[in-house]
Structure formats: structure tokens, C-alpha cells
Amino acid sequence: MAERVAVESELKSLADKLERLLAANARLNEENRSLRHAQEQLALERAALLAKNEQARGRVEAMIGRLRALEQQG
Hints:
The chain has about 70 residues and is mainly α. The protein is built from one helix and no strands.
């Protein structure tokens, strides 16, 4: 009888641990999903900023070219 109680107690303990592990796994999966989404958003934002930077660089280079042309005329 004592062995049966000990086995049932051990099974209950294992079941509790399993439930905690499953809950932790679910939390980590959700956190991972959230972090992947944030990473995607940051990559998109970075790409947009790089494109804006290139556009600005092009405009500045064009202005410099126009200023040099004006300098040579004057």
C-alpha cells in the first residue's frame, strides 16, 4: 500500500512537471513568434531607411554637381 502511494505521488509529481514544461514551451513558442515578427519588421524598416538614404545621397550628389557647374560658369 505504501508503495502504491509513493508511485502515485511520483506520478503526480511527474505530471505536474510535465504541465509546467508544456506551459513553458508554449510561452517560449509565443515569445519566439513575437521576436521573429519584430525582427521582420525591423528588417523592413532598415531596408526602407537604406532606400531613403540612397535617395538622399543621390539628391545631394546632384546638388553638388549643379553647384560645381554654376561655379565653372561664374
